[in-house]
Amino acid sequence: MAVTQDRLHPVVRAIVEQIAARPRYSSMTPAQARGVPVPLAAAPEAVESVIAQSITGPGGPLALRIYRPQNASGAALVYFHGGGWVIGSIDEADEPCRALANRGRCVVVSVDYRLAPEAKFPGPVEDAYAAVRWVADHAAELGIDAARVAVGGSSAGANLAAAAALVARDRGGPRVAFQLLTVPVTDLRYGAASHDEFATGFGLTRADMEWYAEHYIRTPADLDDPYASVLRADLRGMPPALVITAECDPLRDDGEAYAAKLREVGISATAKRYRGMFHGFMAFPNLLAEAAQAYDDAGAALRGALGGG
Description:
Helices cover about 35% and strands about 20% of the residues. By secondary structure, the protein is α/β, with parallel strands linked by helices. Helix 3 crosses helix 10 and helix 4 crosses helix 6.
C-alpha cells in the first residue's frame, strides 16, 4: 500500500522531490548510472591522515583508502560504500569515512570493491572478505589490534559488510568484532511490507532495488544465497551489531529483521529507526539533525564495541 510523503521530514521532502525529478537508474545502463553526478552534501571533516593502499584482491588489485583520526584508539572499521553493487565509489565514501573515523576514534579502511555487472555475486563479497583478511593480517603495520576490527557500510555496502562477517565466521577467521550497518540490504527477495509501503516517492524505489539486484546476481538461486541475502543465513556466531534504518525506506523492515534475528540467537543487536528520514538521509548531516545524530550514534557504538573510550 502506497503512503503519502506527509511522513517525511520537510527538508527530506524537498530532497526527495529533487531526486524524483532526475532520471531513474532503472532506466539507465550501469555505465550511464555511474555518470550521474552525486552532490556533495557537507564539507569533508579533517583527519590526521588519509593514505591510499593497493592490495591483491581475488580479481586483481584492490584499492583501499585508510583514514586515521587524531585520537585513534587502536581499533579499525573496514567500510564498504553503497550504490546497489553497481554504482558508488571510494571517492563518494570519503565524507562518511572521515566522520566515522573521528566519532569512532578508529582507523577506517574504505574498500573500492569490484562493481556489478562486470563482477557479479559473489565477486564483491570475495573482495570484501579479502579486505577484512588483509586488515587483520596487517594489523601491526596499521597500528591496530587485530581483535578490534569491525565491518560496516551503507546500503549495498552494509550488505557486503555483513556478508564478509559471515564468510569470516565460516572460514574460521579473521574475527570480526562488530557490524555497523546503515540502511542495509539484507534480503534480495524484497518481500517485506516496507518495500510496498515506500515503493515510489521516497527517493530509493522498489524498481531501483530490482534493477540493482538484476545486475548483481547470476541466477534467481542467488537471491536465496545467505552471502547475498544475509537475512537468510544462520546468524549464530556472528558479531554484535548496530543497524541504522530510516522510517521511509523500502529497506527498513529487512534491516530491522536482521537485528531481530541476531537477537533471537543471543547476539547483541540494536536497530535504531530515524523518524521522517529516507534511505539516503545520512548524506546530509549539515541539513538534517537526524543525520548528524546517526553519525554520533554510530561513533558511540564503535567506541563501545571496540574499546575506543
